[in-house]
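Kindly go through the entry underneath: sequence plus fold tokens. Please state briefly how this chain folds according to its tokens.
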Amino acid sequence: MLTKGDLQAIKQVVKNEVDESLDIKLKPIRKDMRKIKKDVKTLIDHFDKRDVRIQKRVKKIEEHLDFPPQQN
């Protein structure tokens, strides 16, 4: 018959094996997630800068056409 100590030892061995297996399987997923985060950040930065440039151009056009200042 198994004792509580035996069960705890078995539980620890199984837990270690599962953790190692998960780490191995999750490693490529983590790598992909880092790349996706980097790509999303690059896209957001690009479109944010583009939006600022467009706002400046629109403001200059509005001033040239004597439009009233736009309320936000």
